[in-house]
Design goal:
Blueprint (H helix, E strand, L loop, with lengths): L1 H5 L10 H22 L2 H7 L6 H22 L6 H18 L9 H30 L6 H21 L8 H15 L16 H5 L2 H5 L4 H30 L5 H26 L1 H21 L6 H9 L1 H20 L5 H29 L7 H7 L1 H17 L11
Length: 416
Amino acid sequence: MAAAEGIYSGAARPASGMLTVRLSALMFMQFFVWGAGAVTLGLVMQTVGIGDLIANAFSVGPIASIVGSFLLGMAATRFLSPKMLMVILHLVGGVLLFILPGFINPEGGSTFVWLLLCYMILYMPTVGLANTIALKSFGERVDRFPFVRAFGTIGWIAAGLIIGWAGLSASPEIFRVAAVVSLALGFYSLTLPNVEADAPQGGSIVRQVLCVEAFGLLKQRSFLIFVTCATLISIPLAMYYAYASPYVGAAGIENVGGTLAIGQMSELVFMFSMPFLYRRFGVKPLLLVGMAAWAIRYALFAIGDGGAGLWAVYLGVALHGICYDFFFVAGAIYTQTIAAPKGVNAQAQGMLTLFTYGVGMLLGSQIGGILYAQLPANPTIADWQGMWVAPAIAAALIALIFQFSFRDNSRGGMQP
């Protein structure tokens, strides 16, 4: 524990209350943008007659994570401040979001997918950048990170509720809602703390541009196993993001956006408990519980229906808090503790995004597309049930691999 706390000996002093408010606003807008455009995208595409492109649309995010996280989220943070990258990426991205709805139709479906890829190359690096700005700003007090990250969850919830209440769950206009907030976030980012660009300990300029120091963290056995399992668990994760909305719609639930927001509401409960749980149990139990929750969620989806089994649909959605917080939020803090001694915080967060939202979700989107192709043109809830069996088994197997191979019980530098 002492060793972990010592990691931040040269960091900033504990953050002020106003800084917490500023970073909370950052997280709210960051995830509002994502939630508005992603929560019901599968339903939108199925409604307008391009359901066969859902797998491709949800594959561009992972591809963008690989390209964008490396070029903009890892290499660029060596030379530009995370703050200025946030400004540029969200302003340009907001313009693209305004354009997207005009191509969500059978005639422009392919163009829509390509434009979505361009947008996601801009957006995905900002996930790691937002984490980096918050974590670096807090210095030693990384225990405050789950609190401000909770406002990202609130932003996602707000997006889902607004989309649902406005009757836009199946409308291409979801992207224009996201565009307004993206532009606002771009301008707001000008006011963010001036955290420094990464400063690796040494090496040639080529090594620094290629982020050799960040990838070198994988030499640590525990971190390598964590990244490997994080990549693998992102494969079934991709299927939830791509196909949960049409599945919930098939169950006879009309307010799809609002229903999926239940998952983010459950995030809040667990997010605020993260500092205590991380200090009390360490990283391994939290990561393991998170992976096990994915297996349970998909098992519930496999038995859920629009009748007596509707409870399983709602419970499966509500498990999102455990699924996401216990793995991805805990994982971001764990990555920070591993990267801090090397001075590659932003690069390491970008690398984690690359492997999870990139490699893992790309594989998951394509595998999900293969499974979806086996369903009838207008699948019923019974058709959907069989699709969730494979990801349930996969998540359970990954949890077992993690249980018997991961040995690090770090508390992530959190302080009482």
